[in-house]
Write a structure and sequence with these properties.
The protein is of the alpha/beta class and 480 residues long. The protein has two domains: 255 residues, 3-Layer(aba) Sandwich (Rossmann fold); 212 residues, no CATH class. It is built from 21 helices and 14 strands. The protein has a five-stranded parallel beta sheet. A three-stranded antiparallel beta sheet has the order 12-14-13, covered by helices on one side. β13 and β14 form a beta hairpin. α17 packs across α21. The protein is elongated. The N terminus is likely disordered.
């Protein structure tokens, strides 16, 4: 595979930016620590009423105020929360509070401050060239470093190690220039994140103590002091969930803020996140997901978070909602293509596809093996009934139930075309009012077919109609 050019990976600095130390001084640029830079830029954004963390929903009154407090206080932060709670997104969004461009000594591996260089290479360069020292510029997006903590992560990965090739070139082991810097020094004057921190071996966590408190690093016992300027941010699952490791107490004590994340409290927020994150293709048949079907998918996730059959310590990620919404659209698309229909609208009969997209994302706790599909099916029916009760008035469907007393049978399924649902609507005039109640102004035939099937299933689950299911077909009829 062809690797992208460097210019494709990072923006090109504007030509008017200073290119040597003398010009930088003349421009009036002032050196600031990473935490002062974040704080001062946050103050400007807050005063202007800007959203500091766009794209993160559901945390406006809980997590985000705490994160703003930490930024204004200049604290390193650890986020505690189950999977799929936007911890990494919050961490990465911190770079938006940085200056767009930051000057460094050209060629520096650790982003040396032109006014206060810390590496030997940069100090010698400034001593030799003075105001003619070349300056390079780093974009805010390149001031972010990230490491997923794994048991095999070493001090060399994070802090650094002696480079044997440099030693072989004739340098002494005591020479600072023999060092190969790790990820933390290379993110100097930036934001460094460690995901799943408890998975990091305890002896490696000890190596981060100086970074957080004394703001320096030690490599192989050398008397090399690098006063690093780093905002350290970490994510972790709650201690009562993970038994793969723990965060050592001295390290936890050095974080200035510990912020607990959570799943969306409201169904509407879960729907908004799913609509933002889900990839619904636009290069095929037109796909339209009615509001009640999107609500059904989100309600399913909330039901799973409250179920005693689901392991709540491992969490039910918002990714489940996103994946299920995408799968529902895909199942409806496959059905519509097979029926030769141009407009795709998901129906209740498409919900069986969600068993596959759900099974790998939740942990079922059941006494008997192989009950996963049954538990998921029960949760889906719970979600359908919950949304039905919330969106369809009982008075509105009473006449629909009465209509089934005349031996009327309504058939649904993934092989039933829209035309048959429209024929059912014509034969069942009482259904028109609840369908309109569900859809509002969207009364396309495909949407009406979806609403009809949803209402029939809701009436069955609320014990007002009987249902006979054979294969992929369902027949609804009057009770007794």
């Amino acid at each position: 595979m062809t690797q992208p050019a460097a210019s494709e990976l990072s923006p090109t600095p504007p030509a008017e930016l200073p290119r040597d130390l003398g010009s930088l001084k003349a421009s009036g640029w002032l050196s600031r620590s990473i935490k002062d830079e974040l704080r001062q830029n946050a103050i400007v954004r807050i005063r202007a009423g800007d959203d500091l963390f766009p794209g993160v929903m559901g945390y406006e009154n809980t997590v985000i105020p705490q994160l703003e407090h930490a930024v204004l206080a200049g604290h390193d932060v650890v986020f505690l929360g189950e999977r799929g709670q936007a911890k990494t997104r919050l961490i990465r969004s911190l770079t938006k509070l940085l200056d767009e461009w930051m000057p460094i000594i050209a060629g520096s591996e650790i982003n040396d401050d032109p006014y206060h260089p810390v590496s030997r290479m940069a100090r010698e360069l400034v001593a030799e060239h003075g105001d003619a020292t070349p300056i390079a510029w780093v974009h805010r997006d390149d001031r972010y470093g990230e490491k997923l903590a794994t048991p095999d992560t070493s001090i060399a990965d994070l802090i650094g190690e002696v480079d044997p090739i440099k030693v072989a070139e004739g340098r002494y082991l005591s020479d600072e220039l023999t060092l190969h810097y790790g990820l933390v020094p290379r993110t100097n004057r930036g934001v460094f994140a460690i995901n799943e921190l408890p998975d990091l071996a305890e002896r490696i966590q000890v190596g981060l103590l100086n970074v957080l408190e004394e703001r320096d690093v030690q490599i192989r016992g050398y008397k090399v002091r690098l006063p690093l300027d780093v905002l350290l941010v970490a994510s972790a699952n709650p201690e009562d969930y993970t038994n793969r490791g723990r965060m050592i107490t001295p390290l936890k004590d050095r974080f200035g803020a510990q912020i607990r994340t959570h799943y969306p409290f409201e169904i509407a927020t879960e729907i908004a996140i799913a609509n933002q994150e889900a990839h619904i293709p636009t290069d095929g048949p037109e796909i339209h997901i009615p509001e009640f079907m999107a609500e059904l998918v989100a309600t399913f996730s909330h039901a799973a978070r409250e179920s005693s059959h689901v392991n709540q310590r491992s969490g039910v990620s918002v990714r489940l909602t996103v994946s299920n919404l995408e799968t529902l659209a895909a199942a409806a698309t496959r059905r519509a293509l097979r029926l030769g229909e141009d407009v795709v609208v998901p129906r209740v009969s498409d919900l069986d596809a969600l068993i596959a997209s759900t099974s790998g994302k939740i942990e079922i706790e059941a006494l008997e093996e192989g009950r996963d599909a049954q538990v998921i099916d029960h949760l889906l029916r719970t979600a359908v009934l919950t949304v039905f009760k919330g969106r369809v008035s009982i008075e509105g469907v009473r006449q629909v139930v009465d209509s089934f007393d005349d031996d009327l049978v309504a058939s649904t399924g993934d092989d039933v075309p829209v035309s048959e649902y429209m024929a059912l609507l014509a034969a069942l005039p009482a259904m028109a009012a609840p369908v309109a109640e569900l859809l509002g102004d969207d009364l396309s035939p495909a949407s009406q077919a979806s609403a009809v099937e949803f209402i029939l299933e809701g009436l069955h689950l609320s014990k007002r109609l009987n249902k006979d299911a054979v294969g992929n077909r369902s027949a609804y009829r009057a009770r007794a």
